[in-house]
Amino acid sequence: MGTTHRHPLTHIARRMFELLEPICLVTFLADECNEELAALGHRTYWDGYFASRAAPLGRVEAQVVHAAFYNFADGEAARHIPSAWETIPPEASVAARERGSTASLRRILGDELAGSPGLVRAADLTTKAATNAPTEGRVMYAGMRTLAVPSDPVARLWHSATMLREHRGDGHIAALVGARIGGTEAHVLSALEQGIHPPESFGRIHHLEKRRLAAVLDGMCGRGLIDTDGHFTDTGRATKQRIETLTDELATPPYDALSPAELDELITELEPITATLVAASSQ
Q1: What is the pTM of this model?
Q2: Are 144 and 156 in contact (CB under 8 A)?
Q3: Do 256 and 266 meet the contact criterion of CB atoms below 8 Å apart?
Q4: Can you tell me the distance from the alpha carbon of 198 to that of 209, in angstroms, rounded to the nearest whole number?
């Protein structure tokens, strides 16, 4: 391959997010991960979710998980942490998450793609990027960095893609905090960007107390982010765009570890993997 990069660097983080997110989504959408966590004794999907995702942080209190996850309503983390760890060690939960996610990827990709040299190369390059970014200010990413990188290529690809997802998520939270957008407010902006109206019908927040949702919407209206009908204002739309742009900018450091040729190679190798996962809706 040549040394000229054919993908503009300003778009690398966004393109990598598009390519890697379907790999990560098997954890949340496919059955195998939930089955592995249930087999350990986690009673509900959310018990397993909170326990396995927070596990790299250690046995921290619910307040710490709430702060690190950022976009869950007050009290949601406390319904699962630390009770989810009382009989199931964090180490067991995170191992079950890896086993289930890897099994989902193998099933969806099939033997040929899962065992291909292209996937092995994609796993190697993704891992190189994922293990070479600064950890300062990246709580969830730093937690993932404490875990051993799997030797199996499919597991390694999932693990490293998830590290990069948490790295991006930490940066996204920093962008939200800088814009003074809280977790529930972030869901409102996301709903409107997806064309969901009224925004309080969005699946991530529709179950919240109506009075709480009304207070959030009133506050956003008062700041000029949404109008009285719950639609984007120009200010709200511009705020959302600034947050996304900054998130992309903050997500670029891992890819500094790859040469232009390696980045091009990684994108090329990931494209058929991602296309297969997207076609299956990562389930």
Answers
A1: 0.93
A2: no
A3: no
A4: 15
